[in-house]
Amino acid sequence: MKKWLQQTLIVTVALLTFGAISPNHEIWTNLQDKDEAKQANLPSMDTDYQIDITEASVEQQPFERVPSFEESLVASAKEMSYMKFGTKIGPVIGDEFDEVIFPKIEEAIQMTLERSGDLATRRLAISERPAGDYSEKIFNVYDLDSRTDLIRFHVRTEKRPQDGYFYNFHYHIADDGFLAHHSIGDIFWSKNTPPKWLS
Fold first, then answer.
1. Domain assignment of residue 81, yes or no
2. 110 and 176 share a domain?
3. Is 154 found in the same domain as 81?
4. 82 and 20 belong to one structural domain
5. Each residue of 164-188: pLDDT tens digit?
6. pLDDT digit string (tens) for 111-156?
7. Is residue 170 part of a domain?
8. How far is the C-alpha of 84 from the C-alpha of 94, rounded, in Å?
9. Are 78 and 175 contained in the same domain?
10. CB within 8 A of 69, min separation 6: which ones?
11. Threshold 0.90, pTM exceeds
């Protein structure tokens, strides 16, 4: 008789509330017979739980090394270079740039930093946006306090008769008033006109 009463009560509550309220399960445990095991599904209060932690089960996280100032500067330089290349030029010249040109850019940055004096007292940064269209500027390394450039990295598009288009990577330094043209290297594009930078 109790099963019939229980089912009727469930259907009544469901119909009256349109299923929005489900009957409380505590009601059903009180309606069960005494000889049924009410506590069969409940965990025992006197159960002891143990967790064995051994050295093998604990993963040790490697200590993350904070990059040096020079490493941060070089990483930003690479990021600015690829930003300038855009999605049309970057995939075509990226491999050769990484293997041939960028190590020379890294070397030029390190030489300039060594000549620029005490790095601990100087605050240096890289310009935030490369020039688009057909402009040469990739990025500049400058002193934040004096707002003067130390080194300027450029890439020029050159059309060579019979050979096609090349990208000439070079830099200028403050020591000579940015007049001398320090060549880094060339990357061949093709005989077709290259797209604009940042495209």
1. yes
2. yes
3. yes
4. no
5. 999 999 999 988 899 999 999 999 9
6. 887 877 666 667 888 888 888 888 999 999 988 888 899 999 999 9
7. yes
8. 12
9. yes
10. 119, 124
11. no
